[in-house]
Automatic annotation (TrEMBL):
Keyword set includes Magnesium: no
UniProt-listed SUPFAM superfamilies: HAD-like
Annotated protein name in UniProt: Putative hydrolase of the HAD superfamily
InterPro entries referenced in this protein's UniProt entry, alphabetically: HAD-like_sf (IPR036412), HAD_sf (IPR023214), PGP-like_dom2 (IPR023198), S-2-haloacid_dehalogenase (IPR051540)
Keywords tagged on the record: Hydrolase
Coiled coil (UniProt feature): none
GO molecular function, one term: hydrolase activity
Superkingdom per UniProt: Bacteria
Amino acid sequence: MNIKVIAFDADDTLWVNEPYFQETERKFCELLEDYLPHHTVSQELFKTEIGNLGLYGYGVKGFMLSMIETALRVSENTLNVEVLEKSLQYGKELLEKPIELLDGVEEVLQALKGKYQLVVATKGDLLDQERKLMKSGLENYFHHIEIMSDKQQRDYQKLLKHLDIAPDEFLMLGNSLKSDVLPVLEIGGHAIHIPYHTTWAHEKIEHHVEHKNFRHVQTIRDVLPFLL
Ligand SMILES: [Mg+2]
């Protein structure tokens, strides 16, 4: 491997994220229990989120607007304003969650720093992701932070152009096969999948990935033998 730059996904690769969203969703569904069963509200929220992705992009603010839109629809505009107030409050709480680094992250960054250019490549709200990175205490390990509106092939191509490297000099590490692995392999880069115990339905793909530039590991520490 001729790797020069290693890019890390952030949410559920460097730190805990999806469980916080799931906890918020659970509380939101409880708010609407009088209108529809939990599971149905959850499905309706997912539908709204996916429908709004093109308009709002990824991140907490879009999620908050989707909660409000779902609440209005599910209640046929009859809801108590308290539901709106609570939805906003839950969203703000999500923005203020502490950063919980995943096991082994700091050790791996320490081992790789100086040997490669380390980069963060993440989706989400700009301000939220910047704040999370600052709170994480990991900023100094990284040469560059890329907060992407999406993680499709053209988004990675833009990043490579900015970093001025060839695709086969780029390695992406992340928990989403759909966002962190497949588009990178498709443009000729390398990717390592580090699964997290829970994944947002939108990031799930069923098929099995086989590629010469692809590896699957169990934990972030397992990437070190390939890279040192
Ligand atoms: Mg992730």
